[in-house]
Design brief:
This protein is an alpha/beta fold and about 425 residues long. It folds into three domains: about 5-145, Rossmann fold (3-Layer(aba) Sandwich); about 155-315, 2-Layer Sandwich (Dihydrodipicolinate Reductase, domain 2), CATH 3.30.360; about 355-435, ACT domain (Alpha-Beta Plaits, 2-Layer Sandwich), CATH 3.30.70.260. Helices cover about 35% and strands about 25% of the residues. The protein has helices at about 5, 10-20, 35-50, 80-85, 100-110, 120-140, 155-160, 175-185, 190-200, 210, 215-230, 250-255, 320-335, 370-380, 410-420; strands at about 25-30, 55-60, 75-80, 90-95, 115-120, 140-145, 165-175, 230, 260-270, 275-285, 295-305, 305-315, 345, 355-360, 385, 395-405, 430-435. The strands form three sheets. It has a nine-stranded mixed β-sheet, sandwiched between helices. Strands 3-2-1-4-5-6 form a six-stranded parallel β-sheet, sandwiched between helices. Bound molecules: NADP nicotinamide-adenine-dinucleotide phosphate. NADP nicotinamide-adenine-dinucleotide phosphate binds next to α3.
Length: about 425
């Protein structure tokens, strides 16, 4: 890299990257973060030599332990972020993750006129709009096709293939860890043992809160809402529900109802009101969402004109995610511009009008069902079915009430006095039913 190249302005650099494309010079790629995804991206760049891309820099802390013998000898390995940000690399591929310091590096790269490709959902969910504006102002591009559903091209699908529709609803399984846990529980295992297995296999972190608490999925949902529903929402306004309260008993009752349980992220716009939520939900076995097993992800986009479109595949893992990153790089190298999808800031609520499955765990005594039906009736909520399987002890009796579509807020009010009943051994588990 010449000193002259390192001294050019952001606009000159962006122009140089454009010229590189025109003159058939490969785009020079700097990978930030040589972990699971970063090393897979390098592997693809080195092994399959995609047209127009050249790996030139790898940045990581303690980089000496990261060096691999299969990378070309011209690659510069560095633990100095500034040196790489000021180098002649055209594109920074940010695969460190988290808001900081990754966000600061992405900003600096864009300010320097470089383009950025990232798989960082948190950064894009919280700062995507601002970073896209910065990229546009400095002549670069920001692409994040791997930030939602890893290797499944949901983001390019929404940006390109479905840009002509008006998407009104989006539902998806966006977290592979939760899907692994719940699809194993469907086969009879209990939560704690499957979580331990997921941690052993590297699917779940030592602290799994981000995944099982729904925080990871809500960041991804916020990104999808911007592209699909064209609204910029604060991810923290989406209230997630953890999957931790789901038990084997719930799967058994779900089975009797022709359903299973999955962590679903859903958002829709009805009568001008925007609603979004993430949590365990009852999914009809005939729904494509019920077919996803293990760490698979799935997204269903429902358009006003085109109807339902289903995306499914591997939502995580080094190689599948790296494919999405390299595809973004190829789009940059070949000068393909994304369709500008306008979006505007919006507030999001959690009010859905859907049927619910509510599981109670009680110490049995007369009058419990009457009290529950009375509380539901007081909020004009109609009961669909009451299910009680035989074989459970009276001092730990699980039973289920399903209700006709009702507002989430009305159900919450109805359950307040029920929760306080002295016979309740656990918080009632309230799951939305997807039909
Ligand atoms: N893995 C997946 O399946 C997947 C799927 C979709 C999206 N993503 C996203 O892809 C990104 C990367 O994920 P990953 O799974 O590849 O993570 P990872 O394996 O933990 O890799 C992160 C890399 O960044 C390095 N790093 C972390 N903090 C650093 C710092 N302060 N300074 C310098 N280097 C630092 C780490 O170095 P050390 O080795 O020293 O820790 C590691 O090599 C994340 O945004 C993630 O959300 C991942």
């Amino acid at each position: 890299m010449s000193q002259l190249e390192d001294a050019i302005t952001p606009h000159e650099r962006a122009a140089a990257a454009g010229a590189a494309r025109k003159a058939d010079r490969p785009l020079r790629i700097a990978i930030f973060g040589f972990g699971t995804v970063g090393s897979s991206v390098a592997r693809i760049l080195v092994e399959s030599k995609p047209d127009g891309l050249e790996l030139t820099h790898v940045f990581n802390r303690g980089v000496a332990r990261k060096r691999v013998d299969w990378a070309p000898c011209g690659v510069m390995w560095s633990e100095d972020a500034d040196a790489v940000l000021n180098s002649g690399a055209d594109v920074v591929v940010e695969l460190v993750g988290g808001l900081d310091p990754a966000g600061a590096w992405v900003r600096r790269a864009l300010e320097n006129g470089k383009s950025v490709v990232t798989a960082n959902k948190k950064l894009i969910a919280f700062h995507g709009v601002e970073l896209e504006r910065l990229a546009a102002a400095r002549g670069g591009h920001l692409k994040y096709g791997a930030a939602v559903a890893g290797g499944i091209p949901v983001i390019p699908g929404l940006e390109q293939g479905l840009a002509g529709d008006r998407i009104e609803r989006i539902e998806g399984i966006l977290n592979g860890t939760c899907n692994f846990i719940l699809s194993r529980m469907e086969a009879g295992a209990e939560y704690a043992e499957v979580l331990a297995e997921a941690q052993k296999r590297g699917y779940a972190e030592a602290d799994p809160t981000e995944d099982v608490g729904g925080f990871d999925a809500r960041a991804k949902l916020a990104i999808l809402m911007r592209l699909a529903l064209r609204v910029q929402v604060d991810p923290e306004e989406i209230i997630p529900k953890a999957i931790t309260a789901v038990t084997a008993v719930d799967f058994s009752y779900a089975r009797d109802l022709g359903s299973t349980i999955r962590q679903v992220a859903r958002a829709n716009r009805r009568e001008g009101r925007l609603a979004a939520t993430v949590g365990p939900m009852l999914v009809d076995r005939r729904s494509p969402l019920a077919w996803s097993q293990g760490t698979e992800n799935m997204v269903i986009a429902s358009g006003r004109y085109g109807g339902d479109v289903v995306f499914s595949g591997h939502g995580a893992g080094g190689h599948p995610t790296a494919v999405a990153v390299v595809s973004d790089l190829l789009a940059l190298a070949h000068g393909s511009r994304r369709v500008e999808i306008p979006s505007s800031p919006a507030r999001v609520g959690g009010e859905f009008e859907v049927p619910h499955f509510i599981r109670f765990l009680v110490k049995d005594r007369p009058g419990i069902v009457a009290a529950i039906t009375g509380a539901l009736a007081a909020e004009q909520i109609n009961i669909r079915a009451i299910l009680q399987k035989p074989g459970y002890p009276a001092d730990g009796l699980p039973f289920v009430v399903t209700v006709e579509p009702c507002k989430s807020s009305a159900l919450k009010r109805a359950l307040e006095p029920v929760r306080a009943m002295d016979c309740m051994l656990a918080e009632p588990l309230d799951l939305q039913m997807l039909e």
